[in-house]
Amino acid sequence: MNRKTLVLPAVVGLLAPALAACGGSDSGSGGGDAIAVGTTDRFIASEDAPAPLDPAYAYDVGTWNVLRQTVQTLMIQPRGEGEPVPEAAESCGFTDTGNERYSCRLRDDLTFANGDPVTAADVKYSIDRARSLKADSGVFALLSTIDTVETQGDREVIFHLRTADATFPYKLSTPVAGIVNPDDYPKDKLRDGFAVDGSGPYTLEAEEKNGELVKAVFTKNPSYKGALTVNNDKVELVSYTDADAMGEALDKGDIDLMSRTMTPQQIQRLGADAPEGVDLVDMPGLEIRYLAFNTDAPAVRSKAVRQAMAQIVNRGELVSKVYGSQAEPLYSLVPATITGHSNSFFNEYGDPSVAKARAILAKADITTPVKLTLHYTTDHYGSATKQEFELLKKQLDDSGLFDVDIQGTPWSTFRPAGQKGSYEVYGMGWFPDFPDADNFLAPFLDKDNFLGSPYANSQVRNSLIPQSRREADRIGAADSLTRIQDIVAEDVPVLPLWQGKQYVAARDDITGAAYALNSSSTLQLWELGRGVSG
C-alpha cells in the first residue's frame, strides 16, 4: 500500500487522554519478531563524555530517547498534547496555593527490572544525585527550583521548591528526574558506558563497537508497572552513519521504521512516491534551530555585530532552499505554536536589510568586514546542516560586511567544544524537554544554562523567569514571556532560524507509527506493534 498519513495536532490531542487509562506491560499485544527502528543519532562514549546514558548527564534528544524507554519517571508527557500524567507515581500534585510544595505517591509494589523495590528513598536519591553531581551537560538545571526533597514512608515524596514553579510537573517527566537504583548508580560519580537499569517499560542490552553504541535492544520489562501499554516484546534501535544508509535499510527491509533524521530529499520522495508497503507519517513537532554566540569571543563580543547578523540573515531563503515545506522561519526561541510566542526578532529587525546592518555596525564603530567562523556539527542534525551553513555564509559574505568561514565537526567533539567556549558562533538545535515556553527560554538564559553561555541578563534571570513560573495558567505568563523574547532580540545571545516538522517512515504492517514520536520528539517505542500488511 502506498499512502501518506497526516496526523493533525487536534486529533493527537483528542486521543492523548487514553494514555492515563492504560494498564501495565501485561496488556501489550507482543508477539512477532523484534521491530527494528533506524536512527542517525550517534551514541559515543568519549574522554570528554564517558557517561552518555547516565540520567544525571544525558541532555540531547538521542540519549533521552534511550532513557525514556528504560528509566521511569514520576510523571510522563502524554502521546499528544496536554499536561503530564502520573507514571511511576499513582498521583502527584501541588499541595499549596503558591506552587511551592509538590507531592507524589508511588504506585504500589513498584520494582526495578532486577526485582528490587522502588521506594520514595530511591526517588530522593536519584534527584539529589543529579543535583549534586552538576554534570557539565547542564541538565541538572532543570531541577534548579528544588530546595529539598522529603520522604514520608516508602511511597510518599515531597518536593519543597525555592520559588513557585508551575512547570515543575513537566520537569519530573524528563530523564534527569528518572528513578535509578543506588546499587547501580554511585552517588558521587557518573556511570560510565552504555549500561542502563531502571523500572521503565523495557530493559536495555547495548551492542557497542569502538566506544560507540551501534544497536540498542529493548526487551519488554515483565516487572513494569506504569501508565503505558507496551505493544511489542522487543524493539531494536539501530544507529546509522547517515540518512542514506538508513533509507537503504528501510528499502531492503532491514528495518521497519526510520526516525530522525531523514533528509529533505528523502521526505519529498516518500511523500510523493513512496515504495510499495512504506508509509510516510507527518506529525507536529517543536524542533528549532538557532545560532549560539559566545558573547565573550572578540569577534562577536559587541552586541552590534550580533544585531547586524540578525539584520542580514534571510530565514525565508534559508528554509525554501534547504528545507522546503518541512520547516518554517522562526523569529523567536519560542515556536509559533507554543503559548507565549512572540515574533520579537521580526518586530525588531523586519525584513533582511544590508543597509540597516551597515548602519548598526557603523554606529558602533565596527570595522568591516567582520571575520568570523560559523561552526556546525556534521552528524547530529542531518546532512542538510552543511548546506544550511553554506547558505548562511553566502548571505553574510554577500552583504560585504562579513568575511565568514564555516567548519563542520562531529557531535562528540562539537558539543564539548561549544560548552567550553571554543566557538565564537555555532549552530545548535533544540528539541524541548517539555512543551512550554519556559523550556525554550530558561535553558538558554538562566544560570547554569546548558550552552555554558557567558551571557547574563539580571532582569531575565532574577525577575522575568521566576515571574512567569508563578502562573499556573500559562496564558497569564504571556507578558513576562514576551518581555524575555524582546530582550533576546535586542541583545542577540542566540539567533533563532527555523522550526521544523517531524516525520517517520514505516513499513505498513507496523502499527502505532503515528505515535512513534510526540510533539517534543520523544521516541515512544512502546506504541509500535506488528499488524497485518494492508
UniProtKB/TrEMBL annotation:
Signal peptide positions on this chain: 1-20
Keywords of this entry: Signal, Transport
Domain of life according to the entry: Bacteria
PROSITE patterns: PROKAR_LIPOPROTEIN (PS51257)
Location in or out of the cell: Cell envelope
Ranges where the Solute-binding protein family domain occurs: 83-449
Main location: other
InterPro entries assigned: Peptide/Ni-bd, SBP_5, SBP_5_dom
Family: Belongs to the bacterial solute-binding protein 5 family.
Protein name: Peptide-binding protein
The species this protein was found in: Streptomyces pharetrae CZA14
